[in-house]
Amino acid sequence: MAHIHWFPGHIAKAQRDLKEKLNLVDVVVEVLDARIPDSSAYKNLENLIGNKSRLILLNKADLSDEKYNKIWAQKIEEKTCAPVIITDLNNQKDINTIIDKIVEITNPIMLELLKKGLLPRAARSMVIGMPNVGKSSTINRLIRKGKAKTGAKAGVTRQQQWVRINRKVELLDTPGIIPTTQEDQKRALKLACVNSIGENAYENEYVASELLKLIVEMGYEDILRNYYKLQPEADITIENIALARNWIVKGAQPDVTRTAQFILTNFREGKIGKITLEKPLE
User: Fold this and answer.
1) What is the 3-state secondary structure of 123-179?
2) 2 φ, ψ (degrees, to nearest 5)
3) Partners of 28 in the beta sheet?
4) CA dihedral of 59, 66, 198, 82, whole degrees rounded to 10
């Protein structure tokens, strides 16, 4: 059986960098991929962020199955006691909702500062998450609503700048990338399916083949058959999809290399359909 070998370098340094950023903020905006809400969540985040306020975005909802989104959001809220917003970031209303929720979450913190006799200031926030869950897109959409960079804070490198979103919210303009080794192969597979793991860590044929199985297990077999024009009697395999498209290589063999990449791209771009790869937690 193939394996996904993913061990990001400098994990200790990445965690140290993330903790330094966390020390500067009042609220953490954690981004999850709505297609794999469990696998894209960092299991030890509570230990990393301590008692920081937290807002969770169930992102890429335009690519996931709508019938699971609300159920997942409710389950995650119950588990984490943090508010969850379902987002696709193509909707300006989602951006406004995120900003309003950050203000709401940080109101008690701002009131405490006033009680201590400190001058009022904007709440400081940062966006964190696994690779490719939509952190940078979230930051870019929020910044587009913002006005101007407010400069570096003490103890922050020059590259890290604060952007004033409105008079009540500031955002660190660099994402916090969650560093982790991936020892759970089922989780690693799902992260590879949504392109959260570098392609050097796996073979496309293996991941595409497992992705097809996952999609069938989740009850989307008809969607697959229709999209790839597979006959009812044909097994759903890379080889049969290649043959259906007449992608043949030397020796009249199906072109599995080309087809595997094609399947992964189709899924990642939502072309096959709106698909969620994990059922909500019990």
Assistant:
1) EEEEEEECCCCCHHHHHHHHHHHCCCEEECCCCCCCCCCEEEEECCEEEECCCEECC
2) -70, 155
3) 54, 126
4) 40
SS3 26: coil
DSSP class per residue in 214-271? HHHHTT-HHHHHHHHT--TTS---HHHHHHHTT-EETTTEE-HHHHHHHHHHHHHTT-
**What is the rounded distance in angstroms from the CA atom of residue 108 to the CA atom of residue 46?**
20
Report the alpha-carbon distance of residue 272 to residue 227 in Å, rounded: 6
Nearest C-alpha neighbor of 176 from the set 21, 52, 26, 57: 21
128 bridge partner residues: 30, 176
Q: Is the dihedral of CA 102, 105, 108, 113 positive or negative?
A: negative
Tokens, residue 126: 């940062």
What is the residue whose two structure tokens read 């109101």? 107
Prediction pTM value: 0.89
Q: What is the pLDDT of residues 4-35, one digit of tens each?
A: 765 555 666 777 788 888 888 999 999 999 99
Q: Both tokens of residue 247?
A: 């992608």
Assess contact for 85 and 94: CB atoms under 8 A. yes
Give 233's contacts (C-beta < 8 A, 6+ positions apart).
none
Share of the chain above pLDDT 90, in %: 59
Report how far Cα 69 is from the mean position of its chain's Cα atoms.
14
- Per-residue pLDDT of 179-212, as tens digits, reads 666 678 898 899 999 998 888 888 999 999 999 9
Residue 135 near residue 128, CB atoms below 8 Å: yes
